[in-house]
Structures are given as C-alpha cells and as structure tokens.
Specification:
With 122 residues, the protein is of the alpha+beta class. It has two domains: 37 residues; 70 residues, no CATH class. Helix content is 46%, strand content 16%. The chain contains three helices and three strands, in the order H-E-E-E-H-H. It has a three-stranded antiparallel beta sheet, with helices on one face. The longest helix is centred in the N-terminal third of the chain and has 34 residues.
Length: 122
C-alpha cells in the first residue's frame, strides 16, 4: 500500500463512522419527536386596520386567528400589542391545562384589557 492510500483510509473510516452515528441520531430524534405528541405553541401579535389582534400558532401554523377582543359584543380590536399578547398568552395557558381556550369578560377585566370608556353589559 502506498503512503497516499494509507492517509486516505486513516480519515475515511472515522468520517464514515461519524456519518453513521449522525444518521442514527437523526433517525431516533425525528422518531421520538413524532411519538412524543408534543406541539410547539406560540402567540404572535398582529396589527390590524383597527388596532391589534393575535394569532396562536401550533407548530408554525395558525390555530387561532383573533382580530378582536373576545367575549365582548361587537368588533373591538386590542388597543396595544401588549394587550393582545397578554390575552393570547392566557389562551395558551388554558390550552396547556387542557381547558377550553375561551376568555371571559371577568378575565379581561382582571388583565386590565377592558377600557373604562367601553361599557359592556351581560
């Protein structure tokens, strides 16, 4: 065997071994992710023509699209991005607890979302 061939075989075996290990790891990792049933959930504020709303995304896809403040009559957008995110996070926390992701007027009051200038009757 020539010196050139020995140098080639010295690094070829470790490279092949590394590729095999990486392939096994990726196969195992993707299989456990599929079997785990976990879903990545996030909230993103969206600016609308009337103010702010939010999207709840699951694994990057829109699951809930909310342009208006929920639980109140009429179409009233959130005043600020922070308000929209606050309610969106509350929805996600309910989803994590396997509760219905609805928001009540009382919860909106507790979060300081309802404006004093808006009167909502039940």
């Amino acid at each position: 065997m020539s010196t050139t061939n020995r140098g080639y075989t010295r690094w070829l075996a470790p490279v092949i071994l590394i590729l095999i290990v990486v392939a096994i790891f990726l196969g195992y990792h993707s299989q456990t992710k599929r079997n785990s049933g976990e879903v990545f959930v996030e909230v993103k504020a969206i600016q609308t023509s009337q103010g702010w709303g939010y999207n709840i995304l699951t694994d990057g896809r829109i699951y809930i699209h909310q342009e208006f403040i929920p639980a109140i009559p009429g179409k009233h957008a959130f005043r600020t991005e922070a308000d929209a995110l606050k309610v969106g996070k509350k929805v996600i926390s309910k989803m994590a607890l396997k509760q219905m992701p609805n928001i009540t007027i009382e919860e909106l009051r507790e979060m300081g979302i309802l404006s004093d200038s808006l009167v909502y009757s039940r």
